[in-house]
Each structure stands twice: as structure tokens, then as C-alpha cells.
Design goal:
The protein is 23% helix and 33% strand. It has five helices and 13 strands. It has helices at residues 11-19, 22-25, 41-50, 73-86, 130-139, and strands spanning 2-7, 30-34, 55-60, 90-93, 99-101, 117-120, 125-128, 147-149, 158-164, 170-176, 182-188, 191-197, 202-206.
Length: 207
């Protein structure tokens, strides 16, 4: 069973109520959480630190306010959340809707949203949004069974996460949310390579 399944801002508070009760905790596998009340990534880490035997799953996130066609910000929001959640022991990250129509629906309460793929039913077109490609930087290169490995950085302007795949390859996802291109050195096990990332960019390195 997963409990809470709501926003990060009260994640630890609600998890504590359940996990401090041994009878209740016995039946709970982990905690689900969303992103709609801000980042609050510290609450994810705190929940893991306090209850390391329980699992953390990001169970819902989407861009509110109807379709954001062509927006770069939506993809960046996804990557920022995925990197910071994974770096705090989150084991899976689930989008709320991978595909919506041109209105941001269907939705029975008019809570229209955006999605990585917008199906324009009027024009008969499939419109791939930035979030679709940002998600691909993780899902294509961090394979099932991968384990997160230490990934330290010297620049506050970059965000990064690294994973060891079962085939022995390492995938490192780097995000730049600034308006300037950034040069940096990628180091691993005594080897290093000079590289760069463009302004508002994301890159995945596999070696």
C-alpha cells in the first residue's frame, strides 16, 4: 500500500503519522507524492532518512493551466523535479497524463492541463512538447534495475543525477536552468572530459 499520494509540502508530516504507528506501518510499502505546492525536496530526503525501509514514489505531476504549446519551461520543470526527487531516494517518477487533447482534456471538472504529447484532434496532428524530450533524457538512458550512484558537483548553477545500469554503463543527466552556456569537466574513476551545456539546456552522458 502507498499512503499520502498528495503534495510534498506535508509529505513528512503525514508519513510520520502512519510510520510511527507500528500496526499501521506494517501494511504500508511506501509513500506517494506530487509537486503542486512547490519543490519541498527536503521533505523527500527527510522522509527517507527517518524511514529508510519505506519506498518513495512520485505518483503525479503535470503542468497546470491548459496546453502550453511550444513552452520550454514545462520540460525544464519536469527535469528539475525528476533530478531532485531521484537524488533523494525516489524510486519512480510518474507523469499524470502523457497525452491530452488540444484543450488539455478530456477532464470532467474542467481542470485542463498540459502534457508531454498533445493530440490535436481537430487538425489530426501529434504535437510533442519539450517535456516529452526532457523525460526521454531519463527514461531512455536510465534503464530498469539501475541504481543511483554518487554524483557531486562544484557548480550551483547545474543540477545532476547519475545511475549505474545493469549492463555496467553509467548515465549522468545534467540540467542547466540558467541563461548562460556552462563549461564543466565530467569526471569518473580517474578519467575526465571537458564538455559544456547550453543555456536552458539538458544533456545526458552515457559511458
Amino acid at each position: 500500500m502507498i499512503v499520502w499520494d498528495h503534495n510534498r509540502h506535508r509529505l513528512f508530516e503525514r508519513a510520520k503519522v502512519v510510520f510511527d504507528d507500528p500496526k499501521a506501518a506494517y501494511y504500508v510499502w511506501g509513500v506517494g507524492f506530487h509537486w503542486y505546492c512547490g519543490d519541498h525536496f527536503d521533505n523527500v530526503q527527510l522522509t527517507h532518512d527517518a524511514y529508510p525501509d519505506k519506498h518513495l514514489i512520485f505518483t503525479e505531476g503535470c503542468q497546470e493551466g491548459g496546453p502550453h504549446l511550444g513552452s520550454w519551461d514545462t520540460g525544464e520543470r519536469y527535469a528539475h523535479s525528476i533530478i531532485n526527487d531521484l537524488n533523494r531516494w525516489t524510486e519512480a517518477w510518474v507523469d499524470w497524463n502523457m497525452v491530452l487533447d488540444e484543450t488539455g482534456g478530456p477532464n470532467h471538472v474542467n481542470n485542463f492541463c498540459s502534457a508531454p504529447i498533445i493530440a490535436d484532434t481537430q487538425a489530426g496532428e501529434i504535437l510533442y512538447q519539450s517535456s516529452y524530450y526532457y523525460i526521454g533524457h531519463f527514461s531512455r538512458f536510465i534503464r530498469p534495475g539501475a541504481r543511483r550512484v554518487a554524483c557531486a558537483k562544484t557548480l550551483d548553477s547545474l543540477e545532476a543525477s547519475a545511475f549505474l545500469n545493469v549492463d555496467g554503463t553509467v548515465a549522468v543527466v545534467v540540467l542547466n536552468r540558467t541563461g548562460q552556456a556552462i563549461d564543466f569537466v565530467l569526471k569518473s574513476q580517474g578519467l575526465q572530459a571537458k564538455t559544456s551545456i547550453p543555456a536552458w539546456g539538458i544533456k545526458t552522458f552515457v559511458f
